Amino acid sequence: MPRVISEIKAILAERKLLAARRAQEEQRTSPQPHHGFDPNQPRVAAGNPDGGKWTSSGQDGTRVLSDALPDNAWMARGKYAQSPVRGGSGRGGGPTRTGGPSEPMEGGQGARLTAAEGQRRDAISRVRELDPGWKPTPSFYESPEGLIRTNLAEAREAEAHLAKLYSARRRSIDEYWLETHPPDMLGYRGNRNDGTISVVAINRDLVLGTNSTAPGYTTADRNAAFRMRDRLITNYPKAMTTEGNIGEWPNDAVFHAEATVLMRAARANGGALFGRTIQVYSDREMCGACDRVLPSLGLELGNPRVTFVGPNGSVSTMHNGNWLSLGVSK
User: Which residue, among 135, 159, 155, has the nearest Cα to 68 in the 3D structure?
Assistant: First the structure.
């Protein structure tokens, strides 16, 4: 038997055993009488496909009403969190099984289930890079085929939410551009492709920033960039140019939109970003100067974990002065 099917059956057996134990505890603690229940009645051992069932009784009071998978979905040997009862609302930890005994896996279902789980995990992971607390709507299934369908449905829900997140940030960037580029007498606002705009959510507010040559860049931004450049040259000479024209590459990264929005976010957060996990969305991809300087800038701002998302969905994450991933296409 393929390993994935045997492991799934072992998990189902373990879950039935846990459900039976919960039922036993409810029977023991409930003030209502329960006829026909014997807490000392033997059960089939875990690991057996019938694990958790009573071996002999006139009544079979064991049925899994609901048991939820955690956020990483149906993982072999994983630990499962208890879900709300069937039909209730909850935090949406994962697909929830309802009904009686599980149906056996049929040929090909194991591979399809693995693929569906992978799509769900990948889609939810991408959403949580922008919205860490998001969870899919609680879903229910009664068979392996139902579990495959619910995994695919939650993947589609995550993709739809991701599109909304991208759309919201893109809309805020477009609105900022319109605000900082009023039309001239002929109605011309300038070239939309000139400059970069970045946006980050901090304390439930959207903070936007641009590069130093674009409208919307302020004297306060410029002064903060000069001070930060001096600090970085002193504290991180390996990342910065320390001789000659200190305004050249890569030092000029402190005047780019990604740096501007981080420094603005720090000011909005009391001067630093200690312990924060934030996502920066930009309408242009990062340049090489930002690749080199931004990790050091992050350390100076309190070492937040920052994920940068490009207009085409590329993802770069920095923390502890290093890139954890750089330009990974999603």
Answer: 135
